[in-house]
ADP-ribose pyrophosphatase YjhB, NUDIX family (Actinacidiphila alni), 712 residues
Amino acid sequence: MADTTETTPGWLAPDDLEQTRARMPILYVDAVPVRVDDSGEVTHIGLLLRIGPDGTISRTLVSGRVLHHERVRDALLRHLEKDLGPVALPRIPASPQPFTIAEYFPTQGVTPYHDPRQHAVSLAYVVPVAGDCRPRQDALDLVWFTPQEASSPQLQQEMPGGRGVLLKQALAHVGCLG
Amino acid sequence: MADTTETTPGWLAPDDLEQTRARMPILYVDAVPVRVDDSGEVTHIGLLLRIGPDGTISRTLVSGRVLHHERVRDALLRHLEKDLGPVALPRIPASPQPFTIAEYFPTQGVTPYHDPRQHAVSLAYVVPVAGDCRPRQDALDLVWFTPQEASSPQLQQEMPGGRGVLLKQALAHVGCLG
Amino acid sequence: MADTTETTPGWLAPDDLEQTRARMPILYVDAVPVRVDDSGEVTHIGLLLRIGPDGTISRTLVSGRVLHHERVRDALLRHLEKDLGPVALPRIPASPQPFTIAEYFPTQGVTPYHDPRQHAVSLAYVVPVAGDCRPRQDALDLVWFTPQEASSPQLQQEMPGGRGVLLKQALAHVGCLG
Amino acid sequence: MADTTETTPGWLAPDDLEQTRARMPILYVDAVPVRVDDSGEVTHIGLLLRIGPDGTISRTLVSGRVLHHERVRDALLRHLEKDLGPVALPRIPASPQPFTIAEYFPTQGVTPYHDPRQHAVSLAYVVPVAGDCRPRQDALDLVWFTPQEASSPQLQQEMPGGRGVLLKQALAHVGCLG
C-alpha cells in the first residue's frame, strides 16, 4: 500500500504510525479506476505499475490511508489525484457503500489479503475516470486493460497482497468477470 | 408510471400489454437523477412535475419499462434521455446492482409501492447527471431540490404510488437522509 | 431455468407464456444456497445436479420465475422449498437489494448470460440454509462444495447459460473468490 | 459509542487510545439487531437503552471498535454477544459489504454523525437475531420496535450522535422505511 507520511500537524509522525500499526486496524481506501461507455458499462480497468520499497515491480490499485478528520470520499479523491494526476476527473460514487471491504492482515491466510506491515481494513470502490491520467509520484505507469485481460490469472499474479482477488471482486461487481 | 406503448415490431401492442399486465410482473427501472460535487456528494435531487392520464399533478422519478431484448442499462439511458432531454449526460452506474427493488402491487398495502394498473418490479438506481436537463414529452418541468428539501414530508406526499418512499431510500443510500 | 407452468387461475397458461416470452423480459430470481459458520463466513456452496428437457446433465443454482402478485422474497422462498425440500430452513435476506442482476438473453454474447427460450432478468441472492436439504421434483441431487472447489474452472464449465459466472459473482460478493 | 478498553497484551492501553484517537480515524462496527419472519422480512428492530458516562439515558445500536488482528465479522459477533447475551444467535451477514458507512466526526456538521471523543468510521450491518436476547454489561434493556415505531421522529431523537439517521438508513435498506 502507498504510504502517506504527511507532516501536517495533527497527523501521525512516522514513528507514531509504526507504533499505532502494531496495535490498531488502520483505515484505508482502495479504488479501481475504470473507463466506462455511455451506458455505464466498464470498457477498461486501469492498473498502476509500481516499484515498492524493496525494488520489486508490481501492478496495483489506487490505495492509501484515510487521515484524521478526512471524509472517506475526500480520501478517495486525494489518492486518485495523487496517483492519476490532477486532470483525471474521477467520478467518486454518490453512495458511501463500498462494493466490499478488504481486510489486510499481517499474518497470511486469515483472509485473501496480506500486508506484512499492518492490519489494514480497506473500503473498496470502483471509480470511473473521464479525463487524462498522468501518473506521478512513486507510480511508474498506468496501463488500461479490457475486462477480459484484467480477468486473466497471469495479470492477477502480478498483483501482490491479494489485490488480484480484489480486482476480481470489482470485476464481478460491475458484471464483467469473464 | 410513464407508459411506453412503442409500435416497433416485436414489442407489445397496447392490447397485449394490458393482457400481460394482468398476469405477469412487469420489469421496470426507476432512476433518481442527482447533481453531485467533485467529491461525489449529492447536492441536488431532480424531480419531474408530471400530469397523469387523469389530470392529476404529481412529482415523480424517471421511470419506465424494460423492453424485450433491451439491457437494463440501455433502458435506464433511454428513459433518462426521454425525460431529461438529449444533453443531460447521465452517468449510468458501472454496477448493475440496484440500491433497492421497488415492488409495485395493484393491491394496496402489500408493499409501500402501489400501481393500480399492474404488478411492476422496478430496479432502482441513483444516476448523477452532469449536463443540461430539458424535460420533454409528457413531462412538465424538472425541479432540483436539496437533500434537505427532498427529505421533507410535504414533498414526499406529492409523490404518489410510494415514490416518496423510494426517494427516501435513495437519499438513505447516498447518505443524505436528514 | 426451471419452468413453472402452474395452472392456478390468473397465472399464464403454457401457450400464453410462450407468447409473452417472445415479447417481454421475464422476471426471475436466482438463489445461491450456502452453509455459513457462526461468524457468517461461507463454508460451502450448494449446487443442484439437474437433467434438462433434452437429457443433458448440468449443475445449476436455485432459480425460477416470479409470479403475478407474488413478492420477490416469497418467490425466493417458494423456489428454495421446491428445490431443497420443506426443511431446508432458508434464511431469505432481510434486504431486497440483490447482489447483482443477471440478464439472460436469447441471443448469445450480449451479456455473459444466455437462455435460448427467452429474455429473462434475474435478481440474484446468496441464501444461507440451516436445515436438511432434500432435493425433489426434477432435481437429481444437491452437492455441497467448498468455496475453493466452487471457484474451479472445471466446475463452472458444468454450469450452462452463464450460471458459472453468476456463481463467481456470488463468491466475490461474500469474499470467497479464490 | 460503547468503549472497549481491553487489557489484553497487544491492544491499546487507555492512554494510548486517547492519543491515537486524536490522530487517526478509529474503525468501528454498528449492528442493527432485527427479528425477521420466514420470508426474511423485518418485523422488529432491537434498540438498547443505555446510560452514558455522564448519566444521560439514550437509545442506541450495538456498536464497538474493531481490534487489532480481529476480522470485522468477529468484531460484529463479539459486540453482539456482549450487548445481547450469549444465546441471541445473531446471523452475521455472509457478505462483508456494509449497507453503509457512518463517519462520526468530533466536529459537528461535517456528516450527520458525531462523536465528541474521536473520528470513528463505522461499518454498518443489519443483523437478524433468532435467539433470546439478554442484555448485560452497561446495557440497561433491549426493546423491540416495529418498523413503523422505529421510523417515528420521536424515537429517533432519543438516539444521539446521528444513530437515528443510521437507523433510518437501515430501515431504508431493508425496505421498511415508512
Q: What stands out?
A: Chain D has one domain: 26-173.
